[in-house]
Amino acid sequence: VRARIRSSTDVDRDRRDLAALYERTRSATEQLCAALSPEVCTAQSMPEASPVKWHLAHTSWFFETFVLAPHVPGYQPFHPDFGYLFNSYYNAIGERIARAERGLLARPTLEEVMSYRRHVDERMRECLARTRALDDAVVELGCHHEQQHQELILTDVKHLLSRDPLQPAFRAREAARRAARPAARAEFIAYDEGLHEIGHAGEGFAFDNESPRHRVFVHAFELADRPVTAGEFVEFITDHGYERPELWLSDGWDAVALHGWRAPLYWEKDGDRWMQFTLAGLRDVDPDEPACHVSYYEADAFARWAGARLPREAEWEIAARDLPIEGHFVESGELHPCATEAASERDRPRAMFGDVWEWTRSAYDAYPGYRPAEGALGEYNGKFMVNQMVLRGGSCASPRAHLRASYRNFFHPHARWQFSGIRLARDA
Amino acid sequence: VRARIRSSTDVDRDRRDLAALYERTRSATEQLCAALSPEVCTAQSMPEASPVKWHLAHTSWFFETFVLAPHVPGYQPFHPDFGYLFNSYYNAIGERIARAERGLLARPTLEEVMSYRRHVDERMRECLARTRALDDAVVELGCHHEQQHQELILTDVKHLLSRDPLQPAFRAREAARRAARPAARAEFIAYDEGLHEIGHAGEGFAFDNESPRHRVFVHAFELADRPVTAGEFVEFITDHGYERPELWLSDGWDAVALHGWRAPLYWEKDGDRWMQFTLAGLRDVDPDEPACHVSYYEADAFARWAGARLPREAEWEIAARDLPIEGHFVESGELHPCATEAASERDRPRAMFGDVWEWTRSAYDAYPGYRPAEGALGEYNGKFMVNQMVLRGGSCASPRAHLRASYRNFFHPHARWQFSGIRLARDA
Amino acid sequence: VRARIRSSTDVDRDRRDLAALYERTRSATEQLCAALSPEVCTAQSMPEASPVKWHLAHTSWFFETFVLAPHVPGYQPFHPDFGYLFNSYYNAIGERIARAERGLLARPTLEEVMSYRRHVDERMRECLARTRALDDAVVELGCHHEQQHQELILTDVKHLLSRDPLQPAFRAREAARRAARPAARAEFIAYDEGLHEIGHAGEGFAFDNESPRHRVFVHAFELADRPVTAGEFVEFITDHGYERPELWLSDGWDAVALHGWRAPLYWEKDGDRWMQFTLAGLRDVDPDEPACHVSYYEADAFARWAGARLPREAEWEIAARDLPIEGHFVESGELHPCATEAASERDRPRAMFGDVWEWTRSAYDAYPGYRPAEGALGEYNGKFMVNQMVLRGGSCASPRAHLRASYRNFFHPHARWQFSGIRLARDA
Amino acid sequence: VRARIRSSTDVDRDRRDLAALYERTRSATEQLCAALSPEVCTAQSMPEASPVKWHLAHTSWFFETFVLAPHVPGYQPFHPDFGYLFNSYYNAIGERIARAERGLLARPTLEEVMSYRRHVDERMRECLARTRALDDAVVELGCHHEQQHQELILTDVKHLLSRDPLQPAFRAREAARRAARPAARAEFIAYDEGLHEIGHAGEGFAFDNESPRHRVFVHAFELADRPVTAGEFVEFITDHGYERPELWLSDGWDAVALHGWRAPLYWEKDGDRWMQFTLAGLRDVDPDEPACHVSYYEADAFARWAGARLPREAEWEIAARDLPIEGHFVESGELHPCATEAASERDRPRAMFGDVWEWTRSAYDAYPGYRPAEGALGEYNGKFMVNQMVLRGGSCASPRAHLRASYRNFFHPHARWQFSGIRLARDA
């Protein structure tokens, strides 16, 4: 299994750096889950969300399957059934438990899963220290894969806790949090038409779906300088946004009826106050924070209501490519999107990274000339290129080092449990 | 809440006996679950089965709601939300979490539930020691209610563990178990026609659905002297029993197609051997042990194949009423039905109690003159009197003291996860 | 295929009478459908209801399959595929189209189906005139079978027309209809306890499920002298009957929530008026007419609200067995239940036959000693003996000659599209 | 309701031409349905397909609603309920019958629907002759709308007839049909990279989703010179194409499992022969004819198996824009795709129009700068721009005059009942 994934490791990072990345990543996952009870780690609240225990094991299975098994002579899996239990979707690897049934795994216990992690870590350390023929690119891929699951652990456990009538907090909010800063009025920034290059260029890690870098003609457009706020979304609700079919895509209008949507996921009205369930428990909706936990359909309807539209992914990337990776990431500890700070300089979009993933109107598809990796790792991204929409930027649950301007996240248009928000665009 | 449930406590048992029953019952529940991990206690494998954690809490909620709250002045519930979480189906008490969502209760943790039990136990002890106005019949009902849940804990956890691909054992089988004794060939015992009385009479506890005792005319019939064995059921399978529509009720034939039934629940074929998942893990089907985990439809089809029929509940009770409560119960530790011992005397049915619940062809309905209790406890039995079939006798998961000849268990005809088996009857 | 169905034809009716019954029955079916368009005859509104075209063909297929094929040497079916299309549920005969897909039969056209009927009629006439070895009991069964379908044609087409937003009438109501007579206040009639015989006795046709006649002990009971009226049912609604869980069986309460029931089927509220869709189109609910189109669950809840219960089928039969077959039948042309006339004599229940089928609380099961016919005709009744409730008496859509005191109709407890109503009973 | 739809009628076509287009279109619809029975016209075989009767009425409702009602002073609708019955999806117009329930319309009868058509035709003729203020563009839109429904009538009735076990033909195949010509081996034609314009330009009618014409950068690509043949698709099947997950998109693989797909819709294997249901009844699959009735998922999997990919819609349009509208259209009377004729000149794709719609890998979205019409007609195309894939070219069921290079058809990726096929593309 040799993944042809573009990676800078081949060029300029030595094995020591790779080993350090591995340690940092594995440790970050465990710190995230350190306070969780076995009960919380076992339950599954919907087919799309997995138990924490499963995430902890699956990320280890990834290294075991794609690094240890092919490169350690005579390697014996930690447990003969774990391949069945913790394979996510790799048909080339074999059969696996149905996604919706991951919550039935009473065994292995959380403690057994942690043993599995330690076992894999020990072997990986040996491997990284000694094995010459190791495919460093796959190790690096495994680390970025685990970062993705760090974010999913947070979004999945948030969904689970929200379904528990006790609505317990994942982690208490720090008392000393800064007061929210008022979000400035959004301004649109203009971009000229032109032939641009998008996609991953040159150095550093990227997933295969960010390649190849290629030319695209982009018409003149405008992009809002910050995400839509919760306060603006309340205006949409107050203006009967959820009751006016002319604002909605047909499938979106059906989803509103089917699911009874009347507000973003996790919002509920208590008299006149909008409350929301967060990873720190129930609290008021702050009108200055970015609107979050909306589906593509809601993002699209909001944009239509606002006389705008959602950006295409090329537009978003052109606007983002020269910006620093700034915003609120998982490292901030907030685990919730924060109000966008006032601009220090004009004509530059803010909060492009972190806080909320931004829905684009681009359906997820291969870039011209895209080739998935050979073998099982070719299933990583390529087979999902239909029926999903691209999101860009990252969220308050993403590790900062995980993000870049060419990063392409993707979800089905009805999905709401990710930290997904809205940035408006307009034709020039 | 004063339940008019027939009970001998009013007459001849003093409060000390009641307190001892309470202690025995609560302790038995906890011993049953002592070795279970928080993970096992949290997961839910289907809507009909509840997490162990929920059973542990619900049985405590029963005492809190029906004993402590009405009889302890100023009683404050242990937790304000537990009424919502642990009410099973009492509409008169209030709203509650959907049955299928009990597995979403990450919180309270198992430890918190055990604290809840201790809290209730302490208050109950005070109450039993001091409260004059206590309704002893409701305390006794609560104990028998908890015995029912002891059995459900076993059947629910068996279902859960069977769905875990690791198929872990609930408890290892004792090495020293006696060898299975060959089941004698079944004989039919003849009973004359006549006007009989059935239903609970006189002394001791009974549920309201066993009353009133009343007359019923029963035609001459014959009843098999032991339950159908697994070996006999294998013959039915081998004779294409699951493929011959003429053997099945129409709804049963639909269920065979819908669920793809080809054998009892928990059975699987490994080459030529029939294996079964048990609470002690996977093992061979013993041809001498009673057939178990069959639906009403399968029991009925088997009976038709065998040229017989299922008994009516009055027939069963007439045959059982003078027999001692003998068989294999939860106390045996087997947690699986055992081969019926050879008859010590002829013309007496064996294994009427314990081992497997026996499906009758009687739909569950009220006895003539039945009146449910006033108030919420009237929901205990009465509102389920449609669409379910009566089972009689008890199982290897029932506490021996819980059973009696007039006991009426009931489940939907497609249910298979109880320890449900077959005893044949014939018209004379 | 020799059906052992109890029939008097073997004894005392000559072939001429049988031929006349055949002609009358076939003709009555066609008169019923004479005014229906091909469009109405083709559509299917739900899986449980069949297109009229299908009923017209199925009843002919019954004679072709059970009379012509076995008794006419070398008989060739009218069309090789009609066995697949028009077999209802006889597994012994072979595969068939799924019930829910009968509305996909664009072909054969209505005209082709009428040709099929004429073809079968001609052969049947020859057969009845000449064939010595004919099984007269099966011909008689076929006629009573077709009478059942006459009623189903009316209930199924009523359901279909009600789902058409134009709500077209099946047949205009006659202008000269008598004014409805006020329904007298219901009185309960007392019956003593005793050992009774029920089931079909002696002369005349009966279905196999009415046999054998057998003894049953019945406790003292009381039975209302007329069905519950629509006006009384409005009182139940007004008293929040559909919103009070304590009145409902658990499965019934679930059905109320699932289906959003707030009134009988076909009722709708127009301001303060209750309107109902009838076979003559939309009209006011007449408070004096019997309540109709209620499920078992609603009948049971109404009875509980009224401080009564539903009768057992033995009770009903004991009260009905000596009464004349009086009431409003299909021959009246009303096709809707009519107000019960005031009693001409006291202490006699009225409208036991016709108008509305009366739900009993008896689950449909075999009588002691019941044996279904051999072969395919054994599937006629026996395989439905689970999950259904017995209804007694007949309705405004039943042919009068089809009914008798021992007749057992049966439907699932959630069914509402039959002309099903309520008669109350009480323990003495 | 003033639709801003790009149309040449304002410029260079006089009203007489428009009236002639109207007459031709209406007449073509009725000729298509002339031989259909009321039964065939009433039934509905799945929610996505409508009864013929409904199509006949809906196309008339379109003219009544968007032309007659706004432009004829005091116009009264033909029937007050037809707006509810025959509105397809225009929320701005009002409520309507659920799509899946169109088969419940026993009334109006086919004859009543034909009266409705005549009524609308008469008023339209008056209107076209006399009304000055008429919006000609909407009349033209209504005609192209009706052409779309002519195609849907064929695809919907094909689906219905295929579900009838008798599998009746819509129309017998003409005896004198030319023998199928062998399909030449497919060649790939190369196209250079470049900045192109796509979208509707200049003259003639186009739907709003073809505008605005805009620039797009297209990388070098190759396009097959003819559609994939049925014979080639048989090779895919024989090579276990439906059993190899590595060939499929993840959602496609799920669809294969869910629906049990093993061949294109309407194909069935009879021993070694592949048969297919056509509008002329069941016949052999001709290996030379284009593969048809495949979903996007199957088209995509086939392309991957063949070492190619599906074209993007811009690629397709660039290849098609200078070609004549040649192929087999509805006017040929074949109502089935025909083998592609050998090339008369090299390096030119053949059968780009007619025969089969060709799936592209482009998700259906708005062109840059797209603006839907104001009012209800803005719902015509815009609200469907998510979750669907673009198809190009037209089919054997399309009127020739309906097609052009910029035409964008769109369906969900699982849809198979359209005449949808495959043309391969490759990166250069």
Structure, briefly:
The first copy, chain A, is α+β, with helices and mostly antiparallel strands. Chain A has 11 helices and 12 strands. In chain A, helix 2 (15-33) packs antiparallel against helix 6 and helix 4 (52-71) runs parallel beside helix 6.
Structural write-up:
- Four copies of one chain form a homotetramer.
- With 428 residues, chain A is of the alpha+beta class.
- Chain A is 32% helix and 12% strand.
- The first copy, chain A, is built from eleven helices and twelve strands.
- A four-stranded mixed β-sheet of chain A has the order 10-9-8-11. A three-stranded antiparallel β-sheet of chain A has the order 1-4-12, covered by helices on one side. A three-stranded antiparallel β-sheet of chain A has the order 5-6-7, with no helix packed on it.
- In chain A, a hairpin with a 2-residue loop joins β6 and β7 (281-284).
- In chain A, α2 (15-33) runs antiparallel to α6 (110-130) and α2 packs parallel to α7 (136-163).
- The N and C termini of chain A lie far apart (47 Å).
- Chains in contact: A-B, A-D, B-C, C-D.
- The A-B interface holds A 37-45, 53, 81, 84-85, 97, 101, 103-110, 160-161, 163-166, 168 and B 37-45, 53, 81, 84-85, 97, 101, 103-110, 160-161, 163-166, 168.
